[in-house]
């Protein structure tokens, strides 16, 4: 029996070995396959991580900003609605460069190195409504560039060194068509010297092809040969200083630009404006008057110490206002009266002075209970430092009724013509007094004696 059992065991072991071998090999190949699979997945992840794909309000965005890109990748999704390519290294827009993105609604190419746009660069983009080309190196372009863009509504061309000569004639004429009121706003001539600083939309088209504009007549020749005239405007212009983004919402980003004034020429179609981390000290009347659609205004981390009445005039739809980290002591009367629909007011880290001037702010907040606010803490005077401003105002307003109440208790009899304490103060010893005052006099001394 033992011999038979041994033979059966040997047979079973031999029959199991060939099965185990292939399984082991398959396992190794499977493991190797999984390793290779992970490697491919890693490569795919790295490729997709170059651009961020996301959905918002049912539309697909591809964010490829700040990627050092010089071209458009062929493996990008074709069904995107918004392509963000700001702050890359693209130099030339070639024919049919974006033709595969037939559903594209907005194309952001600002802050690249674009110096040339071929005539068919935007072929296939029949759904495009927004094209951002500001902050590049464009000198010339023709109307042919815009012909495929039948639905184009917003075109930004400013902060490009436009050469306002005859080759720009057809583009300028297109921009100046009355129905194209949002195409090419704020774009200006950089040369020739005689037209420098003039807006493309207001330029006399006939002046483009004048003979003296075809050759630079400045001393020394060339664009930089002559002495550059001093700028006329003192205030910085938003279009050349700040960055404009149209999607997902129109935003003007002027943060950390070393501004000491509100920029001029603020675009009228903004929803958000970020002016934080500058050195702005004073808000003057009606500086935001044209930004009537603004819903969020960030003025935090400036040096604000004064806001004039009517500084926020025109901001009827403003919902959020950030004034934190400034040098505000109080608000002048009427400063907040234009903010009908404000819902959030950030006031942290301001040296609020708790005296009579602070009462307007509390009065306004009391009559606008829908406004959520933060940061109202007394900084001065010393006896109120660290108090909530609301508590200080309650204490201030509570003194008068408290005095009147004590006066009533003391006298026990208060006539409509004034308190008995006032009568005592006016009484001079030795003078004849009315009979009713003489009768009440002992009661007054009695009350004072009990106290």
TrEMBL record:
It holds the Pfam family LRR_8. Residues 160-210, 350-401 form the LRRCT domain. Residues 1-18 form the signal peptide. Residues 19-42, 404-441 are annotated as: Disordered. One of its GO terms (cellular component) is plasma membrane. InterPro entries: Cys-rich_flank_reg_C, Leu-rich_rpt, Leu-rich_rpt_typical-subtyp, LRR_dom_sf, LRR_TM_domain-containing. Gene3D superfamilies: Ribonuclease Inhibitor (3.80.10.10). Residues 409-418 have a biased composition (Gly residues). Keywords: Leucine-rich repeat, Repeat, Signal. This is Leucine-rich repeat-containing protein 17-like. It comes from Cottoperca gobio. The lineage of its organism: Eukaryota, Metazoa, Chordata, Craniata, Vertebrata. The gene is LOC115028414.
